[in-house]
Amino acid sequence: MPSSRLLIGPLLRRVVGTRATVWVETSAPAVVTVRTADGATGSAPTFSAYDHHYAIVVVAGLTPDSATTYEVLVDDEVAWPVPESGFPPSVIRTRAADDRDQPVTLIFGSCRETTQHATARKLPPDALDAYARRLMADPDAARPDLLVLLGDQVYADITSPTVRRLLKRRRRRPTGAPATQVVSFDEYTKLYLESWRDPEIRWLLSTVPSVMIFDDHEVIDDWNTSASWRADVRVQPWWAERIRSGLASYWVYQHLGNLSPDEIAADPVYAKVTAAEDATGVLHEFGERIDKEADLAHDTERWRAVQYQWSYALDLGRTRLVMLDNRSSRVLESGHRAMLPPGEWSWFLDRAHGVYDHLVVGASLPWLLPPGIHHVETWNEQLADSHRPWVARLSERIRRACDLEHWGAFRRSFDALAELFARLGSGTPAGPGARVGAGPAYPAPASISVLSGDVHHSYVARARFADRSVRTPVHQLTCSPIHNQVPAGMRPLMRLGWNPGPAGAARALARSAGVPRSAVRWRKLAGPYFGNAVATLTHRGRSAEVVIEGTTSDGHLRTVARQPLSEPA
After folding, report:
1. What is the rounded CA–CA span in Å between residue 552 and residue 101?
2. Alpha helical stretches, state H, 402-490
3. What CATH number does domain 99-477+486-564 carry, 3.30.70, 3.40.50, 3.60.21, 2.60.98?
4. pLDDT by residue (tens digit) across 166-224?
5. Is pLDDT above 90 for 130?
6. In sequence order, which ranges of 441-556 are alpha helices (DSSP H)?
7. Distance between CA 183 and CA 157 in Å, rounded?
8. pTM, two decimal places
9. Which of 79, 413, 524, 545 allows an S-S link to 74, with CB 3.0 to 4.6 Å?
């Protein structure tokens, strides 16, 4: 057997109590061991699929409220840290056994093209690189509890010059696949290798726990915009391999690490891949099945929930984070559109209710867009449901051409989320009009925040509800991109979306089409900022604050917005 080494990782994913999970990819089958300086250890054999080799190691026996360095051994040989890197040691930090009074710090953002894209497009400096360098410069400084990545961690449809050269070499014969886009599982692995081997990012992911959710570019731009989009793409000869490879690789590289140690042990896919000598068939079948299961969400007669769920939840101190899948299982049938199928929405309602100080909902797509853009999306959805076929067809073409597929274009879900936040924010029990599964009354939280990305600009907006009993401040916190940029011609349009005049005209347009008055309005508190950025959400007791930092031309970070999010005590 050839000797093995680390290809990607280590990625420190979850720290739960006195246990932590560490994810790696190795060059050959191996046993991976993680050993901390204070004696906590964990080992796991790799599982293999598509001639690639992975392990997720559960490290047990960590000391509460501590910070300890660690090393990774591959077949008993130290593979991490890399002595010549010059980077500070990677550290696993635990919270106190009773962490209810400890502050919680989340950093978040979305849309990170690999730094190799800069060779072709001259993108501004990478905000996550800048954040990593700042941490390296002061290893003793306080570290965030969690890095929350909100989509487009890799771009399957916008590849770097390096990946394009690889695709050109591999596809010497015409295959029908897009020439510059990845399709196979092995091609997907090159995206992660390119992105996560960036030295600063590799170190950051080794020392700050992270959770992730996909957006469209992990599969393809505007993934599941509408039923007609889905029907059109599925006839493409390369699509079946693309979707199963995209979902399978997402499970391996991103989703598996989102799970706690107990959730990993209970995951049926993990049980199958670790039991198989070669899990290629397992992941092939999984990716194919998940896409077919998504069809059940589109079947309005059965309204059946999908069997495998990408959404997940976790608690840190008195903060609850619920991450939502905005993409794979949308209900797309006219008149019944929804961001989540009914079963998954019921799961979300259960997790959203509880005793905590702060609720954070991670959603790759902003719930609150610039109002002018939001009302155009609601207008378009209303006309797409028209009984006049020509109006519906034209509206569908506009929906797809203009990317009108955010929460406003799924008005049923937009309103349901507003209703949920109003109920939580008033501390009222589920009333006669509440959705099934809403649960009993709980104390109103100190803050509710929706973290999002996607739109390539950053802003803070506050929701205002018609129901005056809503006491909890509810905010939309959008931070995007980490490393990308919005076309210059789009910026005036996005600014206009916040202007009361155009926003009022768009609202009137939507009302003229029959869109009912919304129970929520919102206004911008900070932004929009169009540079590369990373944001920090901090909870201390019942106070909350967000800081958005953008990159300077020399690759440092500067504060572009600082906004308190909770009412004075």
Report:
1. 35
2. 411-426
3. 3.60.21
4. 998 888 766 678 889 999 999 999 999 999 999 999 999 999 999 999 999 999 999 99
5. yes
6. 491-496, 500-512
7. 9
8. 0.95
9. 79
